[in-house]
Amino acid sequence: MENNQILRPAVDRQPVNQEFDAIVVGSGPAGATIARELSKRKKSVLILERGGNAPVKEGSPAIASILNVVPVSDNMVAPRAFTTGGTTALYFAVAEFPPLDTFRSLGIELCKELEEAKRELPLAVLPDELLGAQSIRLRQSAMELGYTWSKTMLMVDLARCASGYKSEAKWNARSFVQEAIENGATLINRARVRKVLLERDRAIGVEYELWKTKKEVEVRHAFGTKIILAAGGAASPILLRDSGIKSVLNNGFYCHPSFGLFGTVSGLKTGDSFVGSMGQVVEDNIGVGDGNFPRAFYRMFMLSHRRFIRAFRHSRSIGVLTMVKEGLGGGLREDGRYYKEFTREDVSKFKRAEELGRQILRQAGARHIFKSKPAASHIGGSIRIKEHLDESLQTEYRNLHVCDGSVIPVNVRIAPTFTLICLGKYLANRLWPVA
Asked: Would you list the domain boundaries of the chain?
């Protein structure tokens, strides 16, 4: 399915108090996977998505319409997307496989799910002909400095890239949502879940607000045998805390701060390319990689940083993205706002990451280098397996499960999308095994 295809949700046909086999809160990679797997097994599934359902294309108006940010410190936010498919509308399509031994130590075996996901999803390492001139220059610069600068596995369909970069070639969770709908699942957009409905020690449903127009909101209840929170690393901990699980975030969270460094090289003649196609963990918990955005996204990014002239000089731009992988810390205030203070060691890593990025860019011949505002890559580590969840990702309330970035342990320091797909398959198998 094309990423910009309009899905057909069933809002108008949805009775206010209908009961389902499973209610899935969120339609990102984990939620979409669970809905797809359960609907294939003929289970009745309700998908509640906070965002809208409009086609998503690269460019300022489209991205601005779905972009939302979560403050995690005084000067840092975590971006997220409110739309069908969740964060896969904005991600870089990096496919890092889950560390099987780590999850096995937590009682979760993902071997079968990993192999199944490999067969079903488009996976590719980009050939050189799909790397832009700036990416080739970066690789040469990094290797001259002694770095490996390896190519990265991406969730990209190369068959759609015959004429070069295509954003539609990136896998998007909307395709799994579409399959779920075709199998009978119900999708409701603009539905913000307010709380989980509990009856003694078990979950029985959810209460949500349905935005019918910009001014008209209807409060509804939906009931289900299984309730799965897949609302994202920032949203699910708040829903759990509001449902009475006060120990959530008692050890804080991680957010993997990142920032970009961008310079210009005269005569480079860059084109559109896939971000994150190459890179390396240069030092312990410090990663540096290709940060060359396609033209439309690059322009929006530069305008958001008030780099108005640079926004129209994509053809000579060259950039790297850096990421620092820090430990748990911070927490959640009573008003639902996250907070985190970074340690001296973290700050030292930020400075070192900037030094490495500037070194690689200068070696590539870049001038006029500037550093972007830092952002949190993703919030995780707040809901812990074997503490808040059992091996079925079930909370202390029966039939209430969590499956999103919030459950990925702090020592699993990878791009989360592929791991979430595997966890979604795993949870579906635990809820209703294939006969």
From this structure: 1-121+171-248+382-435, 126-155+256-377
- What CATH architecture applies to the domain 126-155+256-377? 2-Layer Sandwich (3.30)
What kind of fold does domain 1-121+171-248+382-435 have according to CATH? FAD/NAD(P)-binding domain (3.50.50)
Half-sphere exposure of 131 (CA within 13 A, CB side): 24
- List the pLDDT tens digit at each of the 435 positions of the chain: 444 444 544 443 444 457 999 999 999 999 999 999 999 999 999 999 999 997 777 766 778 889 999 999 989 999 999 999 999 998 999 999 999 999 999 999 999 999 999 999 999 999 999 999 999 999 999 999 999 999 999 999 999 998 899 999 999 999 999 999 999 999 999 999 999 999 999 999 999 999 888 788 999 999 999 999 999 999 999 999 988 888 888 889 999 999 999 999 998 888 899 999 999 877 888 999 999 999 988 998 999 999 999 999 999 999 999 999 999 999 999 888 999 999 999 999 999 999 999 999 999 999 999 999 999 999 999 999 999 999 999 999 999 999 999 999 998 988 999 999 999 999 999 999 987
Give the span between the Cα atoms of 120 and 427, in whole angstroms: 17
d(CA 383, CA 404): 10
Q: Under a CB-based contact definition with an 8 Å cutoff, are residues 156 and 274 in contact?
A: yes
